[in-house]
Amino acid sequence: MANPIIQIKDVRKRFGHVEALRGVSLDIEEGEVVVIVGPSGSGKSTLLRCINRLEEYEKGSIIVDGMLLDNNQNINAVRREVGMVFQSFNLFAHLTVMQNLMLAQNIVRKRSKQEAEKVSRELLVKVGIPEKAKSYPSQLSGGQQQRVAIARALAMNPKVMLFDEPTSALDPEMIKEVLDVMASLAGEGMTMLVVSHEMGFARAAANRVIFMDEGQIIEQATPDEFFTNPTQERTRLFLSKILHL
Amino acid sequence: MDKQLKDNPNRELSFVTGGEVNIRQDPWWWLVAVVIAVVALLVMLQPVPFKEIVVFARDGILITILVTVTSYFLMLVLGLFGGLGRLSKNKLVFGISTLYVEIIRGIPLLVQLIAWYFASPVLIQKIGLWLNFTPLITYRANPIITAIVAITVCYGAYMSEIVRSGIQSIPKGQMEAARSLGMSHLQAMRHVVLPQAFRVILPPMGNEFIALLKDSSLVSVVAVADLTRRGREFMSAHFNPIETWLMVALLYLILTLVAARVVSYIEKRSRYDR
Predict the structure, then answer these.
(1) Which pLDDT belongs to residue A69?
(2) How many CB atoms lie within 10 A of CB A26?
């Protein structure tokens, strides 16, 4: 088997006095879907943001697709290969849906206008909202915005997709439409790293579930094992809190 | 968000169609019309001295517009760089732009104008003597250019702060999303952050234009024959301060009121729902 597409070694990161990551090591294989869970402040989002260097880490190393995140050239190259979906969507508010999808294709991937538009249309069909191409983000529901954000990231043909609590800002009735898109993406073999509390999604689509607490990986297992037979006391405590709700 | 759409469908539409703005939608054009009518009446009913004043001050009006428009666009450029500098992580760039803003903001424009006009030529001549460089030794200040430089430098400092606050008002997520797509900092600024910041700072930008238009009257003290200076010349020749300054004030009012309407029009055109 080839090298893991993401290799994280002993990454440490602090915000002032708070240690957000205390030596995290993790390998992600190509095609794997990994869901990271944990209480808030456990460092799961920080870990995700370190992978495309939106957050700098002090110690350790992260290699993505064979590229070490250490200089600006590599960081930009890695960002081209790693798509990211945010909790708050972060669609470009001044651009239409179509323009949101085309912008980075034009100026980063250097695609022609026709090609970028073709890619964008296909992706909008894929996420189920081709009719919204000319709308502005503010005219869409939260679920629609998040699906556009996924399409925008996919337009760059990333090898890895990072999801940072993609459904946490959504009204309950819109969560499913986003999870459906993510599940179909997982089914196509996309490598995905998902920070989420959607246990249904974790059970259905994940190959591996990771539990983080206080900046460390406490436990990792297949979804079945993780939910039915957690080995660590802290995992059990966490699961008992969220599964009852 | 959908609710907002239903409540106010016209706002959506106005952005999509570019926003029709006419006298019916912007009733304040009537005020412009009234002031113009007052000026026209005065000129027609009492040509002496009102018509004489307008004819005499014609070139002054043009100079006022020239100085205002030129320094406005130059100070926008300076303010853009100043604002970006105020947000720079580079300590030198940040330091220089902060020093510029803090010092210039703290000195009255009138003092700056006088310093540029009377002090800077002497300084340049002294530097010329020291370097033994003839073009500098024989340097003479051109009043209009000096006035434009002074206003640009002064207003650029205020504009820097407007640009800075405009950029800071754009959520950090916009920059992060752009960077996560592989854009460089510069590309993200240019294509994502600045276009949105521009819409935020349009109202204060319009204010700056009107303030600058009025402050341009200060250039009359440094030998620029603008509207104010021409008014003073007319008054000292004809000894009729009431009529002269009534007419000068009305002419300024027309300029500022028209500018305010144009600003409001541009704002409406570039509005979009967030």
Answers:
(1) 85
(2) 21
